[in-house]
Amino acid sequence: VTRVAHLKCGWDLTTARDGQGLHVEVKGVSSSMPSVLLTRNELRRAEADAAWLLAVVTSALTDSPALTKFDRATVTAAADPTVYRVNLAP
After folding, report:
1. 8 A C-beta contact, residue 34 and residue 58
2. Which residue, of 18, 31, 46, 90, has the greatest Cβ tally within 10 A?
3. How many CA atoms within 13 Å lie on the side-chain side of 87?
4. Predicted confidence (pLDDT) per residue in 52-64, tens digit
């Protein structure tokens, strides 16, 4: 496992095992519902990268956090744009 979040590649961890690689985006939420925000870059990688995977830790601030993994097809199908940046500077 290699941490790559600082490289802004669209995922946080690169893993390799038995010749299989994964690009894992990790999100943590305090609630028990796996509802997260993705950046545009993360969503683009999910759409284009067959090795991309989302790992969500729910109840992250409790004594019993839970990890759920979501494949890229599930993530991209559920993606709903809710925030837009509006730059009004000349």
Report:
1. yes
2. 46
3. 2
4. 999 999 999 999 9
Residue 54's CB is within 10 A of a number of other CB atoms, namely 22
Distance CA(15)–CA(55), nearest Å, equals: 13
C-alpha atoms less than 13 angstroms from C-alpha of 76 in its C-beta half-sphere: 15
pTM, entire model: 0.89
State which H helix or E strand residue 23 sits in.
strand 20-28
* Side-by-side strand order, sheet with 20-28: 2-3, 13-17, 20-28, 52-58, 66-71
Are 33 and 62 in contact, with CB atoms under 8 Å apart? no
